[in-house]
Amino acid sequence: MPKDVAELAIALSASGLSLRSVVRLEAGEWQSARAVALIGNEGAAYWHHFQNWCDDQTESVENPLDSWSRQVINEVANRFGGVVLMPNDRPYPPFQRWAMKAHGLRPSPIGPLIDARFGLWHAYRGAILFDDDILIQDAEDQIHPCGVCAGKYCVKSCPVGAFDGGVFDYARCLAHVRGPNAGECRHKCIARNACPVGPEWRYPDHVQAFHQKVFAGL
After folding, report:
1. What's the domain of life for this entry (predicted)?
2. Is 84 helix (H, G, I), strand (E, B) or coil?
3. What is the residue extent of each domain of the chain?
4. How far is the CA of 186 from the CAs of 47, 122, 161, 190, in angstroms?
5. Percent of the chain with pLDDT strictly greater than 70
6. pLDDT of 121
7. pTM beyond 0.90, yes or no
8. What is the DSSP string of 4-41?
9. Cα–Cα–Cα angle for 198, 136, 108, nearest 5°?
10. What does residue 122 show for φ and ψ, rounded to 5 degrees?
11. How far apart are CA 82 and CA 74, in angstroms?
12. Measured between alpha carbons, how far is residue 149 from residues 41, 128, 165 in Å?
């Protein structure tokens, strides 16, 4: 068990990941766990660590970013006596609900949770469950950036109107990204890039291209 959250955060930072928050769980909310440490990235500090890991692999790895994240988080969990939980584990854990509880985050008009500092350039890669309470951080009281954004640039910038109906039209977006007229959308989400919040945390083009390729299955 870490002495405090700073100790856990330092261990994760060695691989470019961040301790996003620690959430207290009610008894029985998720098995026997009493606290969950949410782990992810803020900006793309993780990228060169991930790339170095990829370069060391002697065989092709399916879902490499998820595999790398699990390995890194598992090493830290073993060190501190916790249990790893990943977003794609079954049954699916409520990562977004935990994030909203911890950070006061809310969804953006294009779906992902938006952070007042990092904008849309952050993610939750996994978590560590603890059976005992560790130092719980107070929930942040964030102003929801989208609530004060009159331009709605993200929605308006999508070239195929995938967000016009208030719900993400996944099929329309995917068909465009995979199609012959994808243009920039082949390598990045134009709607995500149009958001004016946190531009200094925006992923570099090559990182965005990696994620877009995974999204489209290309």
Report:
1. Bacteria
2. strand
3. 5-140, 146-216
4. 20, 21, 16, 10
5. 95
6. 98
7. yes
8. SHHHHHHHHHTTT-EEEEEEEPPTTSSTT-SEEEEEEE
9. 30
10. -155, 165
11. 9
12. 25, 34, 18
